[in-house]
Amino acid sequence: MISFDFNSIASSDSSFLSHQNFQSSHVQIQESPTPDELKLVRLYNYKNPFSFSKDISTDISFFLNSHPSRILTFTFYFYNIFGEIIERFSLTSNDFVSSVDAPPAHLFNDSDRYYYYSYSLTLNNFQGRSLSPGVYFYLIKVSDHVLGRGRMAVLP
Amino acid sequence: MTFPLFLRYLIFIFLFVISFIHSSSILDISRLGVSSRSISVGRSTGFTQQAFNIFENPAGLSSMNHVNFSEFFTSTLDDEVSFVFSALAIPLSDGVIGFGWMKASSKDIIHTDISHSYPYEKSRFNYMDELFKIGYGFPLNFNLDFGLTFTYHRFSLGSFVTGTGYNLDFSAHYYLNSWAQFNFFVLNTLPSLKVNYDNNVSLSFPSKIKLNSKFSMDYYNFYSSLAYYFDYSSFDFGLGVDYQLPFFSYLVLGCGYSLTSPMGNLQHHFNVGFSLTLSGIDFSFCYEKSQYLVSPQQYFISFSVDF
Hints:
The complex is a heterodimer.
Chain A: H1 14-17, E1 22-24, E2 40-46, E3 57-64, E4 73-79, E5 85-92, E6 97-99, E7 115-122, E8 134-142, E9 145-154
Antiparallel strand pairs in A: 1-6, 2-3, 3-7, 4-5, 4-8, 6-7, 8-9
Chain B: H1 3-18, H2 36-40, H3 53-56, E1 68-76, E2 81-91, E3 96-115, E4 118-141, E5 144-157, E6 161-175, E7 180-187, E8 194-197, E9 202-204, E10 208-217, E11 220-229, E12 234-244, E13 251-260, E14 267-278, E15 281-290, E16 297-306
Antiparallel strand pairs in B: 1-2, 1-16, 2-3, 3-4, 4-5, 5-6, 6-7, 6-8, 7-10, 8-9, 10-11, 11-12, 12-13, 13-14, 14-15, 15-16
């Protein structure tokens, strides 16, 4: 299992963040790594915790070290606390909101460049079925490569 | 009571519960299984002489004639969720009283906030789901036992929300003859009772009925279980067998298969396990191979002590 050291990453720099610009897809392609070369950091969902009935959605977001030259397919797996899969679906990189400008290297304490991806998760992704309040786990894969995993807390 | 009369009771209870179907409910943490020994035979419950019976067959407490303390541990998803179940059974003059505690928890979940369109980690919080049970099992006649359990549920997601509620479980255990027995369990028999959260939301308890059977033949016991969740409209099914070694009767080997369908997704589970009982102390271990992608295998440990 791949694990990521999120704590080693520097905290958000709001002065930098204010200069970010977003648009759906149409990003400048700089690298085209294989899935194994993709590196994901800062996998969050906002809000967390959240309520599907009140907040409607939670945005699953992360930074990738590249905008691949080809369209990638991301597969999301969702688990209940017993480790049972309750849902899985695939998205292409065009389904995400992604940033045109990569954050500067100092934000990540290394020389890599990172690009922001975000996807709004709603109950439609679960065929409209309600989720019991509690904790759910999600895993993101590209091909067979595990990019990252996170936990989302669903409020009643 | 005759077997047809027993079936008539079951049908009545089934119709009673099905008349209160709710679409949104809390999670049933006992769905994991209630002991290593039970999981190793396809999640069939209520046939051991252990206090674990309080969780899914309080009627099964009736047959216990020792004070018993039992404990069950496991973790899932690479140790991100831990489960601890504890149970105590105390024989009284007319029946057996049982106490149970089930806890599922997960720590250090990231609380996010947003700054200039980017999410960031603001703090961390814990998740906890607990069930406290007190039950009583008693014999109605020579071949039929009844049991009732009062359940108190407590839920928390950090300081964001807490919830509490209570309900009742019921079970009947029928001994057809020396080699066949059945038990019928209803989880949360009062679907009108709710879990009330401090964010002004109320949710129902999950209603489940479960029928377990056990057939004994020489050193073998064959188990089956069938459970239906009204709220999720899903079935769980299990088959298992255990074998007591004739030359070393302290050791029981078991294996089983169970099928669950959380939110309509079929999951297959294969189990093997053993129980070693020496001087009133039982240690059970179960290994499970599942279709899980995060943790394709899992371990369950429980022990039980007679006093």
